[in-house]
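debug: dumping io for the single-chain case to check the tokenizer round-trip. Nothing else runs in this session.
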Amino acid sequence: MNLTTIPPIRAGVAMEDRLQTALTSTGAEAMVLTSPENVLYATGVDIMTQRSIPDRLAAVIVTSGVPSVFVVCKIEAPQAHAETVIPDIRDYVEFQVLPADLIASVLRDLGTTELIAIEGRHLTYDILEQFKVALPQARFTTCDTALDRSRIIKSPSEINEMARVAMMTDRAIHRTFTTATVGETEASLACRLQTAVLEEGAERVNFTVLAAGKNALMSHPISGPYKTAEGDLLRTDFGATSRGYCSDLARTVAVGRASQRQRDNYAYIWETHVHLIEMMRPGVRIADLINHNLARWDARGWEFTRPHIGHSIGLGLHENPMITVDADMVFEPGMVFCIEPAYSLPGIERIHIEDTIAVTETGPRILSQSADWGSLLVVDPI
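debug: decoded output
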């Protein structure tokens, strides 16, 4: 099964109908959703410990023609009752009852114990073995691709939430970078950036990549004691969450002064960025974007080494489809992507730009630009 063989779930379809369509495409009697993203998608509840304590399993059981069942640890049950519209909530006592045993009990009650679809990318081997002990007659398949397809097309309200968190993130980056000074440490800047996005209204910081000078050549370095120097490029790749939806933006600026090479390279990458965004229209092949990026780098005499130049985004950070050379889908209205051209001048510096784009009936809608990033910004100019 691949993404192109499953009919798209259109925005505006009731959530239970979306899940029923996903279940049908798996051919299974039941789906057991266990990842934080899909539990949130199905219930509207963002359970913090699903990420921090993954053994404290939460799950949604979806069967044909029957309302879903929400299984949570008793510690998390008050939040589940307060926030979800699912009426049937079952809880277990941690360390006394295995969550797999309670889920198996629900499946037996529902009469769905023959073919069960699980999230193969999320469910651990240990828990799958517990399922096999509790349901010895059951066979298992996966529902990952079906759920991916369910979440590809965002509703207008989802897109508005994504625009909201993207703009929070961009404002935080702009505020932090425009007040950066020569000699400030990466760690100080990262701390100020994280504080700024929370002050903007984000609920949590998902990741912070912030580096300057040679450190910025690494894709995901940890911000440390390095002090920004005049002529450095300062780069961030930064994301937060609000109301369950993720942001993921990248910005690059110069500290103190910018060389002509830096300005020219940035201008070329930004021009490519604009071209790529303009291509994000219904019916255009997703793979055409990376091929265009490759052609632009070839024309410049630059080596192209990246496996992708962007990804779908939503409740998860990297959702499918990815923008790769073998992406076999076309853009559809309601899709939301991060597009991120980048280039590293070996051993010298790296420029990385990333924005969040919604595909509409009439073309791309940029969700993430609170300021003008079209030319290389010089902070704390000398």
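debug: round-trip ok. The first strand starts at residue 30 and ends at 33.
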